[in-house]
Amino acid sequence: xxxxxxxxxxxxxxxxxxxxxxxxxxxxxxxxxxxxxxxxxxxxxxxxxxxxxxxxxxxxxxxxxxxxxxxxxxxxxxxxxxxxxxxxxxxxxxxxxxxxxxxxxxxxxxxxxxxxxxxxxxxxxxxxxxxxxxxxxxxxxxxxxxxxxxxxxxxxxxxxxxxxxxxxxxxxxxxxxxxxxxxxxxxxxxxxxxxxxxxxxxxxxxxxxxxxxxxxxxxxxxxxxxxxxxxxxxxxxxxxxxxxxxxxxxxx
Length: 252
Ligand SMILES: Nc1nc2c(ncn2[C@@H]2O[C@H](COP(=O)(O)OP(=O)(O)OP(=O)(O)O)[C@@H](O)[C@H]2O)c(=O)[nH]1
Ligand SMILES: [Mg+2]
Description:
Layout: H1 2-11, E1 29-34, H2 41-54, E2 59-64, H3 71-82, E3 86-87, H4 95-108, E4 113-118, H5 125-142, E5 149-155, H6 161-173, E6 177-181, H7 191-199, E7 203-207, E8 215-217, H8 220-228, H9 238-250
Parallel strand pairs: 1-4, 1-5, 2-3, 2-4, 5-6, 6-7
Antiparallel strand pairs: 7-8
Helix pairs in contact: 1-8, 2-3, 4-5, 5-6, 6-7
The protein binds guanosine-5'-triphosphate (GTP) and magnesium ion.
Magnesium ion is lined by residues 41-42, 65, 71, 117.
């Protein structure tokens, strides 16, 4: 088992799993979330905003999914829950205009972090990729060092399809990290190993449920054990059981 963890570690030598922020005093940090519909972008944004807000950072959300019915309201509900403001435009409106307004507000009002939600689906895939590239340009025009992270959200239960998704998104958005969601479900996310080996993009966050606190930093060791659980019979925790057994034996 340790060998598997070592293999994983070797594949990720010099891998940086941490989220990158703008240096103190150099303007807001921007995180852009991308991924197919249903992957968990909006939910992850809600959880991450809560975490950052709890850490004392001022957080602003941008409702860049103007396409799917109810998407703006979904982000606004998270904003209320997290107690962070949300910049939104009209349903069906131009997502880049919303992003522009949000970046201006984040700059003018000195927010620490701006998190941008995007659509998982537009009229077609080409439109989606064009729109994402445009949003990124709008951000960069106002803040040359942003976005500090472009995070691809991947549903751990989607298997092989996740790899083609990742390649597609990577072409236009140059992602900096992966968020692996729904690890609480039956999917173990083995596909992430493939994504990482082919695209060399680290997993930075994992989603473990639908609740506010169900977000965790990525821990490669735990992840590998999770993947192969059931194939091996001696996870490290068993040592404790053995100790107890010895005690029980001594007490006989
Ligand atoms: N069990 C579980 N469910 C999750 C997790 N993350 C998201 N979900 C659920 O997955 C569904 C889709 O999540 P969303 O956040 O709306 O996904 P999205 O990527 O924003 O989707 P679109 O807005 O349609 O592009 C929701 O029902 C979420 O509650 C997770 O880590 N675990
Ligand atoms: Mg969404």
